[in-house]
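This protein record is not my work; I was only asked to verify it. The record follows directly below this note.
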Amino acid sequence: MKNMILAIAALIVGQTANAAISANSSWEEIFAAKGPYQIVAPAVYMGRAIDYTFVCVDGNELRTQKPVDIVVTKQPTNQNGRTEFEVVGSEILSTPINYTQTESFCDSSKGDKTVCRDVTYTGTYPLTVNVKVYSQVGNEAPARLLFTKAYTVPACESASVN
């Protein structure tokens, strides 16, 4: 009986600690919080979208804090018609903080001729962004916005690159 009371008390204390997550909590506390929290941050494009909370500053670049999986599509699709993917390795991704990106836009709606034009974008990734923290209980929809908090991209730890 005593063990049951201690277990219930520990559960209540743990839930109370998680309930205390707020905009005043440190990012370490927010990332470590157990419970129904969803952290929604903007993305950095490094050949694919990478969450701001997973990048760090390395000189004049943003890079992933850890290697990310390299995934390829297996051919052909499986018997159910679903596409299957295979992890073939991992790599650190990076992009310049001040970037220039060229993208081709093609239009084939004007008859039998396809017209393409390149569009060049330049910009600077901000090093501080607003991140939203939501609470999602069960299958409740939609998730409830708890708060928005500024997140500053940390400097990379040199030891994390192999």
User: Anything to note?
Assistant: Residues 1-18 have pLDDT under 50 and may be disordered.
